[in-house]
Every structure is written in C-alpha cells, then in structure tokens.
Amino acid sequence: MSEIVLELNELACGYDDTPIVHELSLHLRAGDIGCLLGPSGCGKTTTLRSIAGFEAVTAGEIRLRGELLSSPTTRVPPDRRRIGMVFQDYALFPHLTVSENIAFGISRHPQRRRIVSELLELVNLDRLGNRYPHELSGGQQQRVALARALAPEPALLLMDEPFSNLDGDLRRRLSAEVRDILKARGISAMLVTHDQSEAFAMCDQVGVLREGRLQQWDTPYNLYHEPATPFVASFIGQGYFLRGQLLTPDTVQTELGVIRGNRAYQLPTGSAVDVLLRPDDIVGEDGSALTATITGKVFLGATTLYRLQLPTGSTVETLFPSHDDHPLGEVLGIRVAADHLVIFAAQGSVNVSATLPLEQMLAQGDSA
C-alpha cells in the first residue's frame, strides 16, 4: 500500500476568528491526485491555504509525510513545507522570461539550468524559454506556473482553481496534460475546483465539502454511484429523487414499479424512502407498459438529455444517443435499469431535482 503523503486530522480553520472549516479529516497517498470540490464558500480554498501555511489552524493538525506542519501550537512557515503552489491567476513575474520564472525558486541550485531545460521540455515549452509572460497564451502561462511549482521538487503540489481562466475546450485538454505530467513524475497533488468534470477527469480521490464540513472523501466512481449523503447525491451528476416505500432491505416500490438494488439498506421495512435516479438509470424500451412524455431536451453532442414526465406528474431524465432523436411531446416506453440503487430516508418533498433545471444546463457550461 502506498505511503500516506498528506494527512488532515480533525482540521478546523478560518479567517479573522471566523470558523470556516470544521472537523475535516482525510488522507492522500503518494502519487495520487486529490480534489476538494464544492460550491462557493464551502471552505475548499481555506483548506488549501491552511495546507500551504498561509492560514492558521484552530484545531486538529496537518501532516506531510508524517511531519507535523500545522496545529493550534505549531505552524511551519510556508517556505519550509516542501509544498508547491499553482495559483488561479498564474502569478508569473512579468519582468522575467519563462526560463527565469521557472528558475525563481531554485536560483541557488547548482543544476538549475538542467532542471529548467527538463521542465521546459516536460511542459512542451522548450522553444519559448526566452519569451516573457505577456507573449504567451493563457494555456502556456499555466504551463509555466506548473513548471515553476515543480522545479523545487515539492513533496506535494497544491492547485487552486488552476484552469478557471481558460475556455472550456482548452481547460479540458490542459487538465488532461497536467494529470499526465503529474502521474509520469509520481507527484502527489491536491486540486481545488468547483467543476465536477474537471475533478472527475483529473483526480483519484475527491472530497465534497458543504458549509465547511466534509461530506465524503472517495473515488469519483463511488461519489456518483454510492453517495454517502443526500447532498452528495444532489451535488454530483444529474438526477431526480422519487418517493418510494421500502419493501425489503434491497427492494423498493415506486411509481416506476418495483426496483431491486444490489445491496441491503439499513432502514425499517415499510419506511418511506427517496430513490435517486440518474439519467443512465432510465432506458428506452419499445412496447413497455411504463411510459413517459418528453417535456424537455438538451442536445449534448454524442447524446441528448431528455426530461420525461411520468403519468403521475413526477419527472425523471434519460440519455439517448443523439442520432435517436425524439420531439417534444412524444410518449416513450421506458424501464428502470438501476442495480446500483441509491436510497435515503425520506426527506422533504417528493421528486426533488438533484441538479440544475434542464433549461439552465446549457448556460451552466462546464461548471458544477
């Protein structure tokens, strides 16, 4: 099993005596890329700044490879933490060339020329070492910032919304490139973002934060298929909750019929439950007795997302291949294909959307 690089144990921190993060515990293994994901104001950047040493800790502790960095009585200065940082605005020195920016943190290293040359090649900027930041594109500037952070060979790399200033296509391509670079060099990293697709594409472990509290620290797959709380279920991916009744530990009665999952739920038999249904849980089936009317659609390229109204008035969503085109108002035969059933004790109203309304999805773009 890989060595643990970063440990947060019951961490609490904030700004100006205002608590932001509460009882946060997680660990990151060597070579893994982790992420703190959540809505604005949830505490993800505060946590990252505390790891970097820019903010004090009011409770708990931060350890890097077993060494205590922060606690209420201990605070190792940022420049002694062996931690690299990539900022949202790149923070490059405008009066220094690309090579000089990369060499800034290793100016006294006897092998600095070799290190800079290797890093320029690593980030595909080997012909641009003599240029200045203003002569580079946004993506190139971000590569320089990454190379500068890697130059001192940090034990951990922190990235605070590193791609948010880039357009959607470039952001996706650059995030994939950065992941490949980090994996090739075995570098452990922690990313902060509000973009789910970015977090899922880049990271091995993702922590979902809500109001300063960690809801779940898990793989992207488990966050989507096995959310630990209703908030995680709602925040991750698309979907709707339908009210149902638990018939047996693994079977629930809903207006879509009886649905059986792949595990037992520790809830009393007969209790009211909320069942999460993702778009990939609903599939088309010609001739099915279960039907729904198309009330909305969004073309997504390879697929089309349809909003369906059930005869009872409740709503679900489904994804079809884009060449399988259907008009608004058409009645479709459907069935449920959800062996990874996600169930919670009933809360609030029935059929609550777990995502933004369909009509907002295009405006939302790649943000989550």
Brief overview, please?
This protein has helices at residues 44-52, 98-103, 112-122, 138-150, 168-185, 196-202, 220-225, 230-235, 361-364; strands at 4-15, 18-29, 33-37, 57-64, 67-71, 74-75, 83-86, 156-160, 189-193, 205-210, 213-218, 240-248, 251-254, 257-260, 272-277, 282-284, 291-299, 303-309, 315-321, 331-336, 342-345. With 368 residues, it is of the alpha+beta class.
User: What is the spatial order of strands in the main beta sheet?
Assistant: 7-8-9-3-10-11
Total strands: the figure is: 21
Determine the number of helices (DSSP H or I, runs of at least 4 residues): 9
> Terminal Cα separation, in Å?
33 Å
Largest sheet descriptor? 6 strands, mixed
β-strand percent reads 35-45%
Low-confidence stretches: 355-368
Number of domains: 2
**CATH architecture designation of the largest domain:** 3-Layer(aba) Sandwich
The CATH homologous superfamily of the largest domain is named P-loop containing nucleotide triphosphate hydrolases
Q: Helical residue percent?
A: 10-25%
Rg over CA atoms: 24 Å
Mean pLDDT: 90
Shape label: globular
Highest-level CATH class of the largest domain: Alpha Beta
Protein name: ABC transporter ATP-binding protein
Pfam families: ABC_tran (PF00005), TOBE_2 (PF08402)
GO molecular function: ATP binding
InterPro entries: AAA+_ATPase, ABC_SmlMolc_Importer, ABC_transporter-like_ATP-bd, ABC_transporter-like_CS, ABC_transpr_FbpC, Mo/tungstate-bd_C_term_dom, P-loop_NTPase, Transp-assoc_OB_typ2
